[in-house]
Design goal:
The chain has six helices and 14 strands. It is of the alpha/beta class. The strands form three sheets. The protein has a seven-stranded parallel beta sheet with strand order 4-7-10-11-12-13-14. Strands 1-2-5-8 form a four-stranded parallel beta sheet, with no helix packed on it. A three-stranded parallel beta sheet has the order 3-6-9, with no helix packed on it. The longest helix has 23 residues, at about 20-40. The protein is elongated and about 100 Å long.
């Protein structure tokens, strides 16, 4: 065995120590190189010539190693972000990066996801009560059929996040900009929204009865077929907001809209006309 070949490979592979597939590649390659070196020596080549020809024969090995390492690490990341069907009560995920993570059918009660980057992750049919998502990036995440009671979303990043058919009693959204978020088919009567900006949010078929949206901002929001009995938008700003009953044979939806308080709210002309056409009291609304 030529020690120079071993030293050469060690120097090339050092940046990738610990990557299993690269370690296996190194062992296989060393065996092949030693065999090639012996063949060249048997053909009468001197040590230096045989070593040089052996090394030249493997081409751009560093590029190959890099590609193998990147693939291996990518696969390892995919494995480590699958936490489905796991008991993870009060687990510490604070500050982690777990893109496209899977947290389905898991016990996550009281877990800490604060500051985590969970972009593209899926939470489905899990117990996520009292979880901490403060400052977490939940862009393109799907959270469906979950128990999120008393979960915290203080200054979370919510972009195209989908909440549907989930329990959000006591869940608190504070200082959040919700962009193209879906909060559909969900009971939101006891959910807390404070200092939020709703941009392109869809509340279709959700129950918002008694909800307090005072002083908050709504842009391009849809409350279509949502229950809003006794809801309050005092001092709120509404631009291009839709309250559509869909197909109905009764005046029930229109009667419900008349129970909403818009005192002190500011509206654009389109939203104002939309609600005025349904005979909602807008006498204390400012139109801009």
């Amino acid at each position: 065995m030529n020690p120079k070949l071993t030293d050469y490979l060690n120097s090339v592979f050092t940046p990738y120590d610990g990557v299993k597939s690269v370690t296996e590649l190194k062992a296989d390659l060393l065996s092949d190189l030693q065999e090639r070196y012996r063949e060249l020596k048997a053909d009468g080549k001197d040590d230096e010539t045989a070593f040089k020809m052996t090394i030249e024969g493997i081409g751009d090995i560093e590029q190959t190693i890099m590609e193998v390492a990147n693939l291996s690490r990518s696969l390892e990341r995919q494995v480590v972000t699958n936490f489905s069907a796991s008991n993870l009560v009060k687990s510490d995920f604070a500050g982690v990066t777990a893109h496209k993570g899977q947290f389905n059918s898991s016990a996550l009660h009281g877990s800490d996801f604060s500051g985590a980057d969970l972009t593209g992750s899926t939470f489905k049919s899990s117990d996520v009560r009292e979880a901490n998502f403060d400052g977490a990036n939940l862009t393109d995440c799907s959270l469906s059929t979950l128990d999120l009671a008393n979960a915290s979303f203080n200054k979370s990043i919510l972009v195209r996040t989908n909440f549907s058919k989930s329990g959000l009693d006591g869940a608190k959204f504070t200082g959040v900009r919700l962009t193209d978020v879906s909060l559909t088919l969900t009971d939101l009567r006891k959910t807390i929204f404070e200092g939020c900006l709703f941009d392109g949010v869809d509340f279709k078929l959700s129950d918002l009865s008694g909800q307090r949206f005072d002083g908050q901002t709504f842009i391009g929001v849809k409350f279509d077929k949502a229950a809003l009995t006794e809801a309050s938008f005092k001092g709120a700003t509404l631009k291009n907001v839709s309250f559509s009953p869909g197909f109905t044979l009764t005046k029930k939806y229109y009667r419900m809209l008349k129970t909403i308080c818009f005192d002190g709210a500011t509206m654009d002309k389109l939203t104002f006309a939309h609600l005025k056409g349904m005979e909602v009291d807008l006498s204390k609304v400012t139109v801009v």
